[in-house]
Write the structure tokens for this entry.
Amino acid sequence: MKKITHHGFTMVELLIATSVFSVILLLAANGIVYVGRLYQKGASSIKAQEVTRSVVDEIKNDFELNGGKYIPLSPSGTKKGFCIGNNLYSYQPKVKIPSNGNRHALIVRKIPDCKATTPPDDVAAYPVGGARELLGPNMLLQNDDVISNVSANAKALTITITIVSAVENDLFDPATGLCKGGLGSQFCATSSLKTYAIKRVNTYN
């Protein structure tokens, strides 16, 4: 009569196999998390870049094509502004728009005669006479001055927009305008754009 033997795994073999499988799962999980962070970082950067480009294009086209005169406004506290034709731009540097959108950072609105000497006090309120916010939720305007290098005849100027987009306030450094590294950095992005505008229509309002 033959003796029947049963072949199986020893405890040591099971421990080794479990350890190897655990390492593989850990590496796979880290890879998935890393890819997810890259995707989120890319999405945050694209969003900030799109808004930056949109703001610069709007101000540039307004200045170059609508024929309105550029009029700088005297600062009022943290509020700054300028007029181009009948469009009044008011902004507050380093003021973040919360996710509920109850604060403004860079707004534009049409007014009949833009000859005000200071930005309106209602720059932080919404709505204000049909004002339209140019930035998105969780964004702020980092640079202090939007318009610079204005020519003597006000027919050429420089437009600079630096936008920081961050879900949480502790993800970026307001002093430098740069996103911090480490945990959660994929939810913060900085986009900066500078362009020169030359007036093409000379009919002032």
Q: What stands out?
A: Confidence is low (pLDDT under 50) at residues 124-128. Residues 13-198 form one domain. The radius of gyration is 27 Å.
